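--- STAGE predict ---
source: upstream dedup step, 1 unique chain passed
mode: sequence only
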Amino acid sequence: MSAQGAASGIAGPAPATATNLSQELKPTGQASAKVKPCCVCKDEKAARDECMLFSTGDAQESCKSTIQKYRSCMAGYGFTLPA
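--- STAGE serialize ---
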């Protein structure tokens, strides 16, 4: 802790040592359950977007299965999408 950190009572991050360099940095427990919608189902979203952009005719009808795969993936992470 620096002199300023010691004075304020705030501890900084632990210094890197041989024992903590191999620790898992991902959050665990409740923090790991909170995912953002932008960070999940990226492949399904890309396939959906590509289908919608480059389909000929009625995109909603021709991309129905791709859209459903994306909705199912998002539902697996607890997100509900409007119909």
